[in-house]
Amino acid sequence: MRWVHVSDDGFEEAWARGVRDIRGATYFYTLACRRYEAALFAGRMIADDSFCLVTPSGETAALVPLYLFEGPQGKPVYAYGTGAEFLRAPLFLGSEGSGLFDKALDIALARIESLARSKAVAAHRVMVEPVELLEGRHYYDFFAAYGYVPDHSVATVIDCREDPAALWAGLRKSYKPLINREKRLVTTQVVDADNYDENLCEEYRRLHGLASGRATRPRASFEEMYRLIRDGQAYLVLVHEAGIAMGAYLFLSNGHYVFYGSAATDPAVAQQRGVGHLGLWTAIEAAKRRGAFFMDFGQVLLRPGGLTPKEINIDLFKRGFGGRRVTVFRSEKRFDV
């Protein structure tokens, strides 16, 4: 088995083959996501050391995202975003316990440690997608056997295979009248590859600036987001009142998996209204129509000191849409000890 590094010829072909063939490849493993992250983290990411493992027969046996950032203590870490967040874990072909899985896991983690020690990288932080647990591929944190220290979290995941009536019944009781009332006041629109319009996508950027009070992301990251929508790997829900967008909600997808990416609601909208509730319910309906199995509402960012009041409120809001609370296996291995 050989590794193909991000700078090697044939990397994108081998990576795309893995995304196609390996079960559990969510949007975060796609080449489209990698392009988006390159734009989003421009100027912040120290290096991209990602690689994939390829068998002698040409199968892609593992996808290994490996981004290098400056960590909270100023040391380089293989992590995500701020350097304190967790990267998607290596994703492997074959089931846990099979010869192919075990061999690829050994090779991938040995390669990561070798790269880390050669670059004085302090740590590697990984998280396993919650769909791995829901679909029965992994029931425990297999990284613990390799010296990784658990730091688990939870996520809310909607099973979109349920009957529409069951999905509606799963909503928090107080959400239903809010959604029904907003349906009488506003219109919703799902923007995807079938009706792509960059001007509609720009409504998200406008609302994002209003909600944040300033521009928080480079323009190139929004353009990559638009490309995702155009290419069918994301969709945007817009909520309009009198022809003006009041809310925009982005969802990222690959295969049977959808991820709630981000939201932007006009701060002038009264808090007691249900614009966001309707936006997310519309997105769940859209995911079901697209044939999604699961919609991941994102993990709770558990850390020492607990959640902030804002994070508690966001989690409470998400939990109101039903679904299951699923363990997210997160782990860290230190190389500087």
Question: What can you tell me about this protein's structure?
Answer:
The structure is a single chain. The chain has 337 residues and is of the alpha+beta class. Helix content is 34%, strand content 26%. The chain is built from 10 helices and 18 strands. The strands form 4 sheets. A 7-stranded mixed beta sheet has the order 12-13-14-15-16-11-17, sandwiched between helices. A hairpin with a 5-residue loop joins strand 5 and strand 6. The radius of gyration is 20 Å and the shape is globular.
SSE map:
Layout: E1 2-5, H1 11-21, H2 31-40, E2 47-48, E3 51-54, E4 60-64, E5 67-70, E6 76-78, E7 87-88, E8 91-92, H3 99-118, E9 123-127, H4 130-134, E10 149-150, E11 153-159, H5 164-169, H6 175-185, E12 187-191, H7 198-212, H8 219-230, E13 234-241, E14 244-254, E15 257-265, H9 275-289, E16 294-299, H10 309-319, E17 324-328, E18 330-334
Seen as an oligomer or otherwise, the chain set is single chain
For the record, give the distance between the C-alpha atoms at the N and C termini, rounded to a whole number.
30 Å
Number of strands: 18
Q: What would the principal axes of the Cα set say about the shape? A: globular
**For the CA atoms, what is the radius of gyration?**
20 Å
Order of helices and strands: EHHEEEEEEEHEHEEHHEHHEEEHEHEE
